[in-house]
Design a protein that fits this description.
With about 290 residues, the chain is α+β, with helices and mostly antiparallel strands. The protein has two domains: about 5-125, 2-Layer Sandwich (D-amino Acid Aminotransferase, Chain A, domain 1); about 130-290, D-amino Acid Aminotransferase, Chain A, domain 2 (Alpha-Beta Barrel), CATH 3.20.10. Helix content is about 25%, strand content about 30%. The protein has eight helices and 16 strands. The strands form two sheets. Strands 8, 9, 10, 11, 12, 13, 14, 15 and 16 form a nine-stranded mixed sheet that branches. Strands 1, 2, 3, 4, 5, 6 and 7 form a seven-stranded antiparallel sheet that branches. A hairpin with a 2-residue loop joins β15 and β16. α2 (about 50-65) packs across α3. The longest helix is centred in the N-terminal third of the chain and has 15 residues, at about 75-90. The two termini are about 35 Å apart. The relative contact order is 0.13.
């Protein structure tokens, strides 16, 4: 795989198209040292951006919660996102818009720092091995917990929130798993390291944790709507790890993960059932609606 700093093309950076390898971030940037950095992740399907406006709205929400004022309008960011996808000629890929505090101040206080914004995009296939998306991935249970809502701006997509996700995923991979299930501050099921989670019971109903200490994913909401259109009952509720043995199916959802079946969580086994495969197919129809039409 080509390292990301060695790739070719352009990146939209502070309203300019800059050569990919020439985009610079100073080592004393506040965002690097103190986590004053927010971002989004979008997918491109057959040249079309999926739910651009919703992702831009969330970027601005995250920035506001973090005290970051993005120096461009939402429309300007939307147009810039479309422009860089066209310039890079991305057909099936990923987009990463992000904003961070610059290097004018190096301390906890950062009132006078410049806010920088960049948007990069590249061709990108499945987040997980395509084979695992049919057989199901394996999760361990992380020792780290999602923070309590009154300890951190949990409903933002901010870089600092992902530190324990990286630690959890690395540990899982070292143990032979693909990803990790994270519990919340009350020891209830929360999410995987970068995706929301759903469970299927023996009656065909779906259960998913209430997003009160982690992101209510845009893909998560799309899957709930697809499931409702298929008359599948959805229960959003607190889920104890003790309940895992009662479920027969499990899957993850996210911009990167899309719909990914789970075959086991630690010692708990699940089947890659038709309901999950049907929801995955429904999601692909939704995101590739131009082709389906």
């Amino acid at each position: 795989m080509i390292p990301y700093d060695k790739r070719e093309g352009k990146i939209w950076y502070n309203n300019d198209l800059v050569d990919w390898q020439e985009v610079k971030l100073h080592v004393l940037s506040h965002g690097l040292h103190y986590g004053s950095f927010v971002f989004e992740g979008l997918r491109v399907y057959e040249g079309e951006i999926f739910k651009l406006e919703e992702h831009t709205d969330r970027l601005y929400y995250s920035a506001k919660r973090m005290g970051i004022k993005i120096p461009y309008s939402k429309d300007e960011i939307n147009q810039a996102t479309k422009k860089i996808v066209t310039v890079q000629n991305v057909q099936d890929g990923y987009i990463r818009p992000f904003a961070w505090r610059g290097s004018e101040m190096m301390a906890i206080s950062a009132q006078q720092t410049k806010i920088h914004v960049a948007i990069a995009t590249w061709e990108w296939g499945s987040y997980f091995d395509p084979k695992l998306k049919t057989e199901g991935i394996k999760l361990n249970i992380s020792k780290w917990r999602r923070p309590a809502p009154n300890t951190i701006p949990w409903d933002t997509k901010a870089s600092g929130l992902y530190m324990i996700c990286t630690l959890s995923k690395h540990e899982a991979e070292q143990q032979g798993y693909t990803d990790s299930l994270m519990l919340d501050h009350e020891d209830n099921v929360a999410e995987a390291t970068g995706a929301n989670i759903f469970f299927k019971d023996k009656d065909g109903n779906l259960h998913t944790p209430i997003p009160d200490s982690f992101l209510d994913g845009i893909t998560r909401r799309a899957i709930i709507e697809i499931a409702k259109s298929k008359n599948i009952k959805i229960y959003e509720r607190k889920i104890s790890p003790k309940e895992l043995s009662k479920f027969v199916g499990c899957f993850l959802t996210g911009t990167a993960a899309e719909v990914t079946p789970v075959s086991c969580i630690s010692d708990f086994k699940f089947k890659v059932c038709n309901t999950i495969l049907d929801l995955s197919e429904g999601y692909q129809t939704l995101v590739r609606k131009k082709k389906a039409a």
